[in-house]
Amino acid sequence: MKRVLVTGGAGYIGSHVVKLLGERGYEVKVYDNLSTGHRESVLYGDLIVGDLSDTKLLRTTLTDFAPDVVMHFAAFIEVEESVRQPLKYYRNNACNTMNLLNVMQECGIGNFIFSSTAAVYGLPEFTPVSEDAPLVPINPYGQSKRCVEGALMDISQAGAVKYISLRYFNVAGADPDGKLGQKYENPTHLITRALKTAKGEFEKFQMFGTDYPTPDGTCIRDYIHVTDLVEAHILAMEYLPGSDRSGIFNLGYGHGYSVREVIDIAKKVTGTDFRVEETGRREGDPIELVADSSRIRKDLGWRPGYDDLEFIIKTAWDWERSL
Ligand code: UFG
Fold first, then answer.
1. pTM summary value
2. Mutate to test the pocket of ligand 1, among 76, 83, 285 (most ligand atoms within 8 A of CB)
3. Cis geometry, peptide bond prior to residue 128 (ω within 30 degrees of 0)
4. Per-residue pLDDT tens digits for 303-316
5. To the nearest whole number, what is the mean pLDDT of the chain?
6. How many CB atoms neighbour CB 2 within 10 A?
7. 124 C-alpha vs ligand 1 centroid, how far in Å?
8. Any catalytic annotation for residue 141?
9. Sign for the pseudo-dihedral over CA of 152, 155, 156, 161
10. CATH code of residue 282
11. Cβ distance 73 to 8 under 8 Å?
């Protein structure tokens, strides 16, 4: 694999992938509508500003660039918003992805790396959750990603595409070189929200739900550093040509932290005792999501280097302070 088209390459995860691809000498092109991404986050390759619903532009881009593989990050990602605006999620995450796959098929491009999510599992019966667990999403975000996984299975069986679907757990942290990180004005994710509160951008941090059946009453998640996550994309991409089948892999470390634990570490890292208000549950939140990541470690040889929540939060804090 040499030439990589990255959709959503101006966004948080996509831009980290583009940086790594560029550093490793791959030829990269980014396709992004800049709805949540930023032009200046694209550190390597050309940026085509376009929407995935624009079939004509997609076709021209794929024909001109002729990528060996498409990495698809462009999507909406907020669970709570998806509950309020489900069609926004189905239209972009599902319909636009089908459009992309269709144009790829027309152009004869057969390798695809898909950003999926732990939200496809819903409320898993066992933890850590393995890839073979039933897919019962409890919010439209997870459902929209599950739709695509279902389509990919069918399309690959028909021989049109080989794909790897990576089911992300909670991605966090920032580029340790300090060049990239999350850039949202009104972030909803736990760590970014907590750090912006520590910085004084919000008056208080709201803790959503303290009556869950967990040891301290708050939800548990598996936080993975963005650099470990993007490294897995390179492994996945290089695995595709030599393999005769597609694959689905969890991407998390295999252990979880509660919201309270994350907040304690955020307070320690920032040296700020910011205000925390305990409020009601947020709709659509699963109680506990922790990855069984043995498959990706075994099949792709993935060896994470940043499995340390304090380090993850520190990189995010360094980035946040640089903004
Ligand atoms: N939380 C708060 N207060 C906040 C923000 C979050 O208490 O201000 C809590 C949430 O209620 C939840 C936990 O922190 O219990 C984590 O919430 P995030 O919003 O940071 O992340 P989610 O778990 O909702 O979702 C993320 C990604 C999804 C992915 C999922 C998989 O957005 O793409 O992780 O675990 F599917």
1. 0.96
2. 285
3. yes
4. 999 999 999 999 99
5. 96
6. 9
7. 16
8. yes
9. negative
10. 3.90.25.10
11. yes
Question: What is residue 50's predicted lDDT score, i.e. its pLDDT?
Answer: 98
User: Which residue reads 């991407």 in tokens?
Assistant: 251
Question: What is residue 129's predicted lDDT score, i.e. its pLDDT?
Answer: 98
List the catalytic residue out of 44, 141, 212, 257.
Answer: 141
Given a contact cutoff of 8 angstroms between Cβ atoms, the answer to whether 32 and 11 are in contact is yes
Paired strand residues for 7: 31, 72
Distance in angstroms (rounded) separating the CA atoms of residues 121 and 146 = 9
Same domain, 52 and 128: yes
Q: How confident is the model at residue 301 (pLDDT cuts 50, 70, 90)?
A: very high
Ligand 1 binding site (Cβ under 6 Å of any ligand atom): 77, 79, 117-119, 169-170, 188-190, 193, 206-208, 219, 221, 259, 282, 285, 289
The model's pLDDT over 207-236, given as tens digits with 9 standing for 90+, comes to 999 999 999 999 999 999 999 999 999 999
Please indicate, yes or no, whether residues 81 and 228 belong to a single structural domain of this protein: yes
How many distinct structural domains can be found in the chain? 2
Residue 142 CA: nearest ligand 1 atom is 36
Cα distances from 7 to residues 31, 85, 112, in angstroms, run: 5, 22, 11
26 and 56 both lie in a single domain: yes
Q: Which atom of ligand 1 is nearest to the CA of 172?
A: 20
Locate 86 and state its tokens: 């489900």
CA of 80 to the centre of ligand 1 (A): 9
* 289 CA closest ligand 1 atom index: 35
